[in-house]
Amino acid sequence: MIIHKLLTAAPVCGLLAVLACAALPATASADDGPSPAPAPKVELVLDVSGSMRARDIDGESRMSAAKQAFDDVLDSVPQGVQLGIRTLGADYPGNDRKTGCKDTRQLYPIGPLDRTEAKTAVATLQPTGWTPIGPALLAAADDIKGGDGTRRLVLITDGEDTCPPLNPCDVARDIAAKGIHLVIDTLGLIPDSTTRNQLSCIAEATGGTYTTVQHRQQLTTKVKQLVDRSTDTTATPVATQGAASCTQAPLLTAGLYTDRETFSENRYYRVAVKPGQELRASATIADDRAVNPGYGILLRGVTLHGREIVRDDEGGSGRTDAVSAGIRYPKPDADDDTPAETVCLQISNSFSAPPSVKTTPGLPVELAIDLVHAPDQPSDVAFLGLGRGWWLLGLLTVTGAVAGLLTGWAARWRLNSGRNV
C-alpha cells in the first residue's frame, strides 16, 4: 500500500520540482539581459570660508546663492546617482593656520540621496574659516573611491587655497596619476585672476571643466549639468590639442573634447564621416578672465582642400561667460566601397583683452562631436537651409510667377478691348 502511494506521488513530485526550478531566478542564464550599469558617484565640495559672506551675487551673499543653488540641484538629481557633500572652511573660525587647514568634513555621505536630510544639512552652514582646497580634494578623493561607475567632484569656491605649501593643482595631478578616472570640475564665484588660474589648473589636470560664475541661476544650471553628466559615460571630456592646419589636425571620433585656444586663434580638428552618417558638432569657448566686450566664435566644416561645407558663428556682448556655435553636415548614403569623407572642423574666436590680462594659458574650448544616421533625403537639411519645405516654396514661387503672367495678360487684353470700343 505504501509502495503504491509512493509510485502515485512520484509524477506529482517531479512536476512540482520542475515548477519550482522554473520559478527560481535564472541568475546564471546566458539569455539574461545586460547587468545594470554601475551607479555613478558625485561629490559636491563647497567652500564655506569667511569670504563667502560677500554680498555680490545678485544682491545676496555668495553663501546664500550657493544654498539656493544646492536646493534646486538636490531636487533634480537623476535616479541612481550616489551623491555626497563635503565642506571646507565650515567649522574653525580661529587664526591658527595649522588647525584651519584641517577644516574639511563630509557633510553628507555619498550614497542614495535623501533630499530632505541633505537640504537640512546644507541649511545649517555659515561662512566661517579658511580655504583648504588641497586637503579637501584629498579627502574627497578618498570619499568617492571604489565602484565601477563614473566619479566626479564638483568644487565650488570663491577664492584660492590658503593652505600652502600644499598646492591644490599638484594634488589634482597626483589624483589623476593614480588612474582612478576621477574628474574634477571647478566653479569660481566672482573669482580674481589668481583663483581662475588655480581652478583652471585643477580642472585641466583631471579632464574636467572650469566655469566662472557671477549669478545664482548660472551656478544652479552649471551644477545640474555636471551632475547629469555623471550618468553619461561618453560625456567625460577628453583633452586634445587642435592644430594650425587641417592636414596636421588630430582625428577625432564621437565624444566630448577640451582644448585651449589663445585670443583670435584658429584651430583645426578632423572627423571621418561615413556615407549615411550626419556629423553634428558644437563648440563653446569660455572667457575665464576679463575680456573686452564684443567677441564671437566661428565653427566651420571644410574639406581637406579648404572648401567650406557648412558654418555657424555666434557673438557675445560681455554679459555671458561663454559663447557657442553648432553645425550639421549629412553625408548621403552610397555604395559600400565609398570611403569616409574627412571633414575639418575649424574653431576661430575673436576675443580680445586689456593689456594687463594674461593671454596664457588660452581660453578653454569644449568641442562636442556626434555621428548619427543621416536623413533619408539629405536635401531636407542641406538644400539652401530651407528644410523639408523647400520644394513647397519652389512650387509656390512657380505658381506665383504663372499667376502674375496671367494677370498681366488679362490686364492688357482689357485695356486693348477698351481702346477698340
TrEMBL record:
Lineage top rank: taxon: Bacteria
Signal peptide interval: 1-30
Annotated region described as Disordered, given as residue ranges: 311-338
Transmembrane segments: 389-411
Residues in VWFA domain copies: 41-230
Record's keyword annotation contains Signal: yes
One protein family per Pfam: VWA_2
Alphabetically ordered keywords of this record: Membrane, Signal, Transmembrane, Transmembrane helix
InterPro entries with a match to the protein in the record: CLCR (IPR051266), VWF_A (IPR002035), vWFA_dom_sf (IPR036465)
Protein name, per record: VWA domain-containing protein
Organism: Actinacidiphila polyblastidii
